[in-house]
Design goal:
The protein is 69% helix and 2% strand. It is mostly helical. It is flat.
Length: 184
């Protein structure tokens, strides 16, 4: 039988840990760089926290089980579900693209006007990290190469939207989105 109170406690532990990391590590760092950096970094952190919530949590209490198995499955056949008509493949494809669109917008803003290549690479690496950890932390989850492809596509779509919205976003983040300027 599923233990809902325990699941809630596990999620609360993860959320408290994310809040503490933000308050004691990231917020002081971003605040020291100015208001724009604080806002951009905080938006990116909140976005990443939501992605982690939907893909990996609860995580902290699952870590001790990584080395005990059983691990989830691995699917290395791109778009297998679509090709074979398994499950709600279109819903999964669309949700994975939508999930990473904010990454394509927020990564360049929070990291100092990174280009499309860096943004898509960051989306790919983040997606791979999630996909590798899912079956290790939760045996009912699997690594799915289709998710990596669609997540990466979502980051690229997000970057394209950023370019379309650049004039409006530059009003809010003028230093981060100056053409030709990249911040480390």
């Amino acid at each position: 039988m599923y233990n809902y109170p325990m699941k809630i406690l596990e999620l609360v532990l993860d959320i408290v840990l994310l809040v503490l990391v933000y308050l004691f590590f990231f917020m002081p760092k971003w605040r020291g760089r100015g208001r724009e950096s604080l806002i951009a970094g905080t938006l990116m952190y909140v976005y990443l926290s939501f992605v982690l919530y939907f893909t990996l949590m609860p995580a902290v209490t699952a870590v001790p089980n990584i080395f005990t198995g059983p691990w989830g499955t691995v699917n290395l056949h791109p778009f297998r579900d679509l090709i074979n008509g398994y499950g709600d493949y279109w819903r999964q494809i669309i949700l994975n693209i939508l999930m990473m669109i904010p990454m394509g917008i927020l990564y360049p803003i929070s990291r100092g006007n990174r280009g499309m290549g860096m943004t898509v690479t960051a989306g790919f690496i983040f997606s791979c990290g999630i996909e590798v950890l899912q079956p290790l932390l939760h045996s009912e989850r699997c690594f799915d190469i289709t998710d990596v492809v669609t997540n990466t596509l979502g980051a690229a779509v997000g970057y394209a939207l950023l370019e379309l919205l650049r004039p409006a976003l530059a009003l809010v983040f003028p230093n981060a989105l100056k053409k030709g300027k990249r911040r480390n």
